[in-house]
Amino acid sequence: MLWLYIDFYALQLDALLLTQDAKVRHEDSEPDVLVLVNAKTNRVVQLNDAALKHGLKTGMGIATAVSLHHDVQVMEYQPERERDKLKQIAQLLYDYTADIALAPPQGLHLRIDNMFRLYGGLENYWQSISNTLSSLGYRFRYATGTTPPMSKLLAQQGLNQLLDQPKQLKQALAQLHIEQLEIDQKTVETLNRVGIKKLQQLIQLPMKELARRFDIQVLNYIGKMLGELKHGLQFYTPPPYFSADLELMFEISNTQVLQHPLKKLLAQLETFLQMRNLVTQQINVHLFYRHQESITVSLSRASGEYKQEKWLALLQLKLESVKLTEPVVSVQLQAKVLQPMTTGSQSLFGQKQPNISQEELISMLQAKVGEQKVFSLLANDQHNPAWVTAYQSAEHVSSNSSNLLSKEHIKPRPSLQLAEPILLKDKVTLLQGPERLQTAWWQQAMIQRDYYVARSHDGKLCWIFKTPQKQWFIQGYFA
Amino acid sequence: MLELDKYQHQGLIWYGNRNDKLEGRIPCGYSELDKVLSGGWPKQGLFEFKTPVGIGEIRLVLPYLQHKQSLGLLVFIGSPTLLNAEFLLANGIDLNRVLVLPIYEPEQALWAAEQCLKSGCCSTVMLWLNQLSVKQARRLLLASEQGESTVCLYRAVQAASQFSIPSTLSMSLKASDLGLSLKVDKQRGGQASDDLVINMWQQWPDLSTKPVCHRNVLPFPKSANH
After folding, report:
1. In which residue ranges of chain A is CATH 3.40.1170.60 found?
2. What is the pLDDT, as a whole number, of residue A223?
């Protein structure tokens, strides 16, 4: 087996610098000297190029650092932020390589021997990986090894070579000092005391001897590194949904302008879905304000879609109705429910090809006028006229005509029905009736009504009813 | 002449002898009306109905809706009240193919109507809208041609009488004991008509008075050929 370890040794600082680069940079001024300091140990852990130039080094105390340069900008080291970034990198690399294991906060283990057949060799493989990595803009070190700990150790020493011969790797290992190993200071001292200075000396000892002479920690470490003991790794699995965010370079208060950054995210979504042969029916766009709580714009389509231009068209419609109370500083795009891609069949010799599909039309209408204004109809078997017609979500509109009842209604029913019956005030002529409609006593709003068809003085055909209290109401019109 | 050219360009002039669109009419279900409309409803276009609410204006086009629903969705936009599903079901309208949009802002209603019309997946749009500019009407007309669909535009009589809008067919409806009293104001490739009474007794016996009883004059459909 061959492993590759990639060590992003200044991940947090680099990420910070990248966002700053995007902002306005003063050309004439000297770059700031930036260092990240571990708050617990008070030592410098990451520094930028300007800091290196002034002679600062990792492992220095703050006091030393400040004495070397008068204007050092000190920031706190936050491993959690690196962890998030690392996950993003892993997600990106997942498109190129199969087995990735996170080594938080700064490293990634990649199993590479099983990828050679796909890429046709180590060189091609490394090219696609390194291209991806350099597009990110983070500084990194790397090395290979026959076991994960070996590659990690070599990478952290800045080997930056891809060796695939065990012999070469052994050589590289042999030159390392005991101090460079990931074992605690006390053990290092113990080893030093018996004259072991280089890793070479440890490797030469048989495992049994190691176990007898030194403590279990050393045995484990060396055993795992040489592959004598198993090193368990949990491979990274990408989240089953899509989520991407974008820090805006400047604040945006116009929804029209907001489309451009969102276009980028939609393009990412398209790539994500296309590679997995998936589509999504709903995406959520979160708009983050500087002060107020974020707002969410949800877009849904009746049929799943992955293409960015289709989503963009909906988004444009939806954004027209969104009011920004404050400039937006960052946006996030999420698609949580994903489905496999399917295509509907269309008749080849149909009379006319619709310009857009029914589902698309419905999604478009919903995006523009709101979902609460697009309905399909459902007829319930009820006596109470108020319950007969149900307005339901438009997703039930289908192209197959199955629900057609061939029942021949003898009783007249109005086409237009009032939501609430109104009191009949004018004089009418009765044409038809009565038809008694009575709901069961156990139903909540029990009614007992005598319905008539009547013509009002201005010729309207009304569906009116009389309650047991002899009150007359208009229920609807025979339009 | 220049004036005339301009009007012609704007599509405001109709030619009486232009009957290229007369083929493929859809029977109205009422022989009186078929005669006036040269055989039935046009296959597509903008039908303007100037009518009060509740006199039979939907029932008039029901056979047309039934005929066209196999071609696409039936969309109701901005109906004055709720719709009754039972009525539609009982009259052979497939509820799976009906879309209801209770939109009452004119701008949005027009937008939705236009999208539906030109989508190609809607056969008929029923639109209730009083205020409508010439430009907006032309947009609907164009959209209906693009999507081979029909829009039935219902307008109140007062609102519609202000100025004429471009349409395939425009008629005024009035209530009548027998069914409906109807006057074709204009139609593409045809002529305007006088008032004529549509006898709905056969189709809607519950909703109209029987035509023969206690009447001195028999309501006989007027001839449309002047």
Report:
1. 3-156
2. 86
| φ and ψ of B26, to 5 deg | -110, 120
- B77: containing domain: 25-199
pLDDT at B222: 62
Determine which helix (DSSP H) or strand (DSSP E) holds A277, and give its type and residue range: none
Question: What ipTM score was computed for the predicted complex, to two decimals?
Answer: 0.82
- Radius of gyration from C-alpha coordinates of chain B: 17
Q: Which residue of B has its CA nearest to A369?
A: B108
Is B52 in CB contact (< 8 Å) with chain A?
Answer: yes
How far apart are the CA of B2 and the nearest CA of chain A, in angstroms? 38
A 10 A CB-CB count for A239 gives 9
Q: How far apart are CA A305 and CA A266, in angstroms?
A: 11
Q: Which residues of A touch B208 (CB under 8 A)?
A: 431
Q: Does A403 touch chain B (CB under 8 A)?
A: yes
Output Rg (C-alpha) for chain A, integer angstroms: 35
Domain A3-156 classification at class level: alpha beta
**pLDDT one-digit tens code per residue, B129-157:** 998 888 899 999 999 988 889 999 999 98
Could you give the angle at the alpha carbon of A286 between the alpha carbons of A284 and A291, nearest 5°? 165
Closest CA to B199 of B27, B32, B26, B28: B32
Task: Decide if domain A242-340 falls under CATH 3.40.120.10.
Answer: no
pTM score, two decimals? 0.62
Number of domains in chain B: 1
Q: State the span(s) of chain A assigned CATH 3.30.1490.100.
A: 242-340
Q: How far apart are CA A407 and CA B196, in angstroms?
A: 33
The dihedral built from the CA positions of residue A276, A282, A287 and A293, taken in this order, carries a sign that is negative
Residue B5 has pLDDT above 50, yes or no: yes
pLDDT digits (tens, 9 = 90+) for B20-59: 555 678 888 888 888 888 888 998 899 999 999 989 899 9
> Which of the residues in chain A have pLDDT under 50?
24, 401-402, 406
